[in-house]
Every structure is written in structure tokens, then in C-alpha cells.
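[Archive record]
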Amino acid sequence: MAAGGNLCGVRTEETLKIRIGEAKNLQPRKEPRYSRNCYCIVTLDQEEVFRTATVEKKDVHFEVPRNFRTLSFYLFDTDLIGKDTVLGKVAIKKDIVQNYHTDTWLPLVHVEPDTEVQGRINLEIKQYEFIPDTDENEFSNTPKLSVRILECTDLFGCNGNGTFSDPYVNIPPDDVESLVLRYWLGPREDKNEPPSKQDLGSLRLRVCHTEDHVFPSNFYDPLREAILGIKDGQDVRTMAAHILGELVKDKGTVARSFVRVFSHHEQVVDFIKLVVDHEVRSTKDPNTLFRGNSLATKSVDEFMKHAGMYYLHDTIKCLVDEIYDDRKHCEIDPAKLREGESLEANLVNLRGYVNRIFAAITCSAMACPTVMCQVFHNIKETATMKFPDDNDVCYTSVSGFVFLRFFAPAILNPKLFQMRNEHPDPQTSRTLTLISKAIQSLGNVVSSVLFLEVISSPSRAQGLPVDSTIVLKEGMLSKRAQGRSHLVFKNYRKRFFVLTNKGLSYSKDKTKTTLGHIPVSDILGAERLGEASFHMKLMVQIIQPDKLLYIQASNTVAEREWIRALRRVCQSNPHRATKYHPEAYVGGKWLCCKERAEKSEGCTPITEVPQPKCVNVAIDCDREMERIHSLFLVYLEKLDELQSECESQCENCTAERTDPELWKHRLMAINDIRSHVISLEQEHKQHRKITHRLTRHGSKKCPWGPTQESPDLFRRLIL
């Protein structure tokens, strides 16, 4: 099973996680009364990959799309008229980027045309010893040199405007031999001009570069079997995930890979149940339950982010978009109010956003994915059994995850949860922070209790209808009278509609007796109705087994929300309609297809309802297995120490003091993991050996240049 014989089956995957901290000791502006307004551009070689709104405390995480040599950070300042000026840059070679995985202050350097030269050049250099002399028609003893530029790629204009002001090649005549090589271009050295001594300031950075060599799937089978082999009632301390969690300080890194592997193999609910049960049993005080960053809490965090992304977007994304677009003032700290702002008006704006987002969350129980409900149900049951005298633990154990670790962080950082492509401006960021804090505090109020009961109920965990009645949508709509001619006066009346998980009902107003009710089993679909039917806009038809109900919304937003809520209710209806008529039956025929039979089958396919998804992207299970292997390999010495501890316990423990079977099974698990990790690393070493042997310096994949692996043979060549 040697990987070296199949290099094509091994792929390289790279990621960069960057924390841009802050800048200090920057040069003052020419106008001292104005402070700097800085932002930062991140580039791979000369390709911009990220641009911050401000400098301080920005996180960048992305997959590296191609091979690169230099990671650069350009610091810019925007003046009052919008002109950008570069203040300096920090450039880190790929060879040494691993040295900056902790916060490090790096000096800014000048940005000049010659320092920005990068790219690759493919040269053919030939020397001819005897060349015929054109004038004397005889051979000359003077050697001749032929230089041909075959290709130039990834070049950057050295005069700063994208063009090349001096496109020529200058080759010193000494030590010339015939070669065809590729060469990395680097900054030009100007020996006549001494380097500037001016201090431009510093930039605090943290860069984590991960490079995984992912093998074909069969190479990970032994380690995968050791990870996935969990059983009911198994002690979590014998699981590979828990063992690695003891070795690695960053529990989030461990949880991320294990949750994805278990999700890929549809065992994530069982995995989370084991780690959560262990966490609850180890907790003495219910007030501290799930408060730390343990393997259990990080696993649930990663699971919610992975399984609930579609649910999250469907619930609050439209409101987050509105906050970005409106840019309303919501500051309620008197010390931070700007001139002209009103504290009372800001408070009204903030309350409006908080109330709408909180209502959207508490009305979304029916949309919560079943797999998430299963996890919440297990959490509630385990916490209740551990603390039977605490009446609130059944709610706080679930709300701590749903509100504090899911919705609130998503509101605080929409880009991290893929709800926005850009970071918010400072004002919007402050608004999101205030809303996020409010949502955290509202997680335990009475109005959220019903929502928490539903998403953690046994029926929702089994994908069955919920016994409790929960309001999904309510509001005033115009209802068209049924059984009348469309010409009758006052065919449309205002009614207060309430949509729940049990059905749709309506009354004259919110306080009046219900006039009509349609059970969920009779809601077969909800579609827009063409304006030509009754010469009215914003019409919605609710499809029932024997008839249609026509309602009219007040605006396009309400129309969309009602259609979406109705479709969500009927998506699990086994008798859901497959076709419908987009126009009404008027004058003895359907206006859409002209069919005369009133009970005829629809002429248009029903709109497909997007099902809640567990993932928003496919899981690369082999890559996650490689990450797990890499983590075990990095902490192999600690694993050996843990192995020695288990061996000592097995030899010395007695049944009265500790469980000998636990240490025995724990030692067996460690031995299996260690064996698989070392075996897989032998394959990696063989692959690196073959790759190094086949690498040809000067080729397109490995140009000559000033790197640690490739010496700079042509430092004096000038382009």
C-alpha cells in the first residue's frame, strides 16, 4: 500500500488562519489634528485575497488556492478626501511562516517599485565556443552567448502602474554554461542607495499555516476504524477523540475534525451523546454546566455550526441583511453617543431589532433540523437526570448552546457564519454587538421556554409532529370569501391569521373567537396567484384537498414570509400536492391552461421546498482524517507519556481504588492509535522521499530562487 508509487493520488491542501492585531508607532499625518484611518490588504505573492475594513482585531481564514512564496500585509491610510496612501508592508516567506503562529510584532518596511518585483522567468542560455565570423568568414575563438526568454509568468509591474519600465535581461559574463531553467524573480538590490533608517511602525500578526498531504481513502481505514468503533455504554476515556483532547490544548481543533468524520459516517449524535454525558457526570454545580471550553462544548458548537447553517440562514439572515443595509443608530451608551444622536431614538431602534430577531428565533422551532433536536433532547435528558432538583436545568442546558453559542455568535460575526461576505463597518459592528448581548440575556426568559421545549422534545428528536402548539406566523391578511362569485361586493375581508404547527386559523381580530381552521394535514401547498385572476396583487393560494383558500398580503415582504412559513409547515405532509394552477378558475375555466373541469389536475409543478440540510458543503473525510493523524503525530511524545501512565496503572491498580478494566481498555485504545499513526507516517516519509528525488530545480514547479530548499544560483541576473 505504498503511496510513493502513486503520487497522483496524493493531494496537498493548505489553509491560512490569520489574526491581524493592531498597528503601533505609525508615522503621524501631515495634519496632526486628524488621526489615521487605516486598513490592511493581505496578498499571496501579488494577488489580493483579503481587505479589512479597519486594522484592529480582524480574523482571516481561507483555503490557499495555489502554491505561493510570500504572504504580505500592506497597511494603507485613507485621508479625508478618500485617497489611499500605503504606509508600509510586512512580507513573510512561506518557508518561515510557521514561526509566527503566536502574536508577533513585525516591523513595517517601505513599499517601492523595486521591492515589489515578483514573478517567474523561463530562460534558455547557450554558449557557443566557435562561431563563424561574419566579416572574415572564419571561425572566431571568442565564445558567443545566446539568451532566449521563453516565458514570463506572475509578473508585477515594477514601476507601480502595472507596466514594465525596463524590460531587459542583464547577465554577467563570468561562469556561463548552457542551461534551460526557471527562476524566481526577486526585489532588485540597489547598492548605491543606503536603506532607510526611518521607523514606519509595527503590525501585530498571528499566522497559522496548515499544509496537509492527503492520501487516498484506503490509507486511513485502520485509523478510521479505531475512531469510529464506539459502543453504547462505552467509557468516553477510551475514545480516540477524548484521548487526543487530553493531549491538545485547543479543544476546538480536535472537535472540528472528529465531528466532521462522525457526521460523514452518520454517527455524530452517538458521539456527542458520549462526550456530553461525560461532561455532565463530571460537573458538580448546575450553574457551571457547559460553561467551559471542553471537548463536549466545542463538539456541540462545531456540530451546530455544521448541521444548522441552513437553519440559521433561514431564520435570521434576512434580518441581518436589513441591519447591514439600514445602518440605523443603536448606541445606548451615553459616553459613546455622537453629536446629533438621540438616546431615546437609538433605544427604539435597538429594541425593534432585538424583538424581531428574538421572535424569528422563537418561532423557528419547526424548522430546526431533526438531528439538532436529537442532540438537544439528549443534552436535556442527561442534565435532568444529573440534577433532578434543579427545575431550570432542562432549559438552561439547551439555551446555553442555542442562544449563547449559536445565534448570539452568528449575530456578532455574520461573516464567520457565512451570512455576509464582508465585515461590518464600525457602526454596524457596534449594533450587532448590542443585539448579540441582548439575545444572550433573553435566552432564559419565559417567552423562550416553549421554543426550548419543542426543539428538545422527544417527538422532534424522532422527527414526529410536536404535541405542543407553537405559533409560527401571525398577522392581518385579506381573505377572499369562499363559495361566492368573484363579482360579489365585499368579497374580501380583513382577518387575523395564526399559523401554528397544528394548522392555520383565522378570526376577526386577535382577541376574537376563531372563525375557521385548516389542519396541517389539509395544507397541501402554498403558491402565488397570478394577478390576472382577480386583478389584485400579492395574492396567495393555499391548496387544500377539495378547495382553495385565497388570501392577500399587505406587501411583498409579508407575502414572501407567509408563503415560506406555509411551505415549511406542509413540507412533511405525505399528501403534499405535486401540481397546481397558477391562475384561478374563472368563467368556467382555468385562466392558466383553459381547462374546463374545475377538479382537473394542476398544470404547473409545485414549488420545491428546500429541505433543512445538515451541511452546507460536502465533508472531505480523508482530509479530516489527515488532520487527526497530524495532531496525534505532533503530540506523539505526550501520547507515549499517556501510554506509560496507563501501563503503570494496569500493573498497580486494585479494584478497590480504581477500575482496572478502564485502564486496560484505555491502554488498548492508545496502543492501536499509536500503531496506526506511526504506520501512516511511514507512508508519508516514503512519499516525501520520492517527491524529493523526482523534484527538478529549475522546472516550472520548482524554479531556482532564494529559498531554503533552492539556492540562489543567479543572484546577479537582473531583469
Notes: The chain has a mean pLDDT of 82. The chain has 17 helices and 24 strands. The radius of gyration is 33 Å. The first strand starts at residue 11 and ends at 24.
